[in-house]
Amino acid sequence: MVLFHHHNLEKQNSLMLFTFVLCCLCVVIAGDSSIYEVLKSHGLPMGLLPKGVRNFTLDNSGKFVVHLDQPCNSKFEKKENELHYERNVSGTLSYGQIDLISGISAKDLFLWFEVKKIYVSSSSSGVIYFDVGVVSKQFSLSSFDSPKDCTTVSMVVRTTDLEDVDEEDDRHVVEVAVSKNLSRKIRYKLDQGNIGNAVL
0.70 cut: is pTM over it? Predict the structure, then answer.
């Protein structure tokens, strides 16, 4: 009788372990292909995240973490605007918005700003808003209809990164930002801390 009871416990434990492992595998597999559907079901366009999402986690409160293979940049709206995605992107999903975002930056001219929140006020408006702390930038919803290709990058200098840079290093940061965003034919010469004339 004791032996039979012990055998039953082993069988139950094995079954529970198998079920747990199976559930974990299902979450990873589902995450690899359905994060875009999760966005859609929350009234958001699927193209807010780029192609190449490996997997993601999402809890009951809407908190999520998305894992990419590597940091990358994606262009939208006739390639005039650009978003940067870190390897791990997180936030809190609710209907029509993503709050407490970490891991996404938006480019304005040659500066990068961390995106704090993304929201759609009304689907009929055809507009989506990106809150970058100082202002909210608006874009066409249709620009994010589908996930975009994402180009691998090594580093992005955001405006928040400049807060800890001293005056001497600040010139080098500006030089890097300018040289990466201007045509090869134009180079700016930094002379004793001041931006000099353009040299063709």
Answer: no
Summary mean pLDDT of the chain: 74
Radius of gyration of the CA atoms of the chain, in A: 23
Confidence of residue 163 (pLDDT cuts 50, 70, 90): low
Of 39, 64, 63, 33, nearest to 51 (Cα)?
33
- Residue 19 covered by a domain: yes
Cα gap 131→177, rounded to integer Å = 23
Number of domains in the chain: 2
Model pLDDT, residue 95 = 97
Domain-embedded: residue 157:
no
Residue with tokens 């995240």: 49
Beta bridge partners of 151: 73
Residue that is written with structure tokens 């699927």 in the block: 46
Which residue range is the domain that position 147 belongs to?
2-152
pLDDT in tens, 55-90: 999 999 999 999 999 999 999 887 779 999 999 999
Asked if 117 contacts 97 with a C-beta cutoff of 8 angstroms, the reply is yes
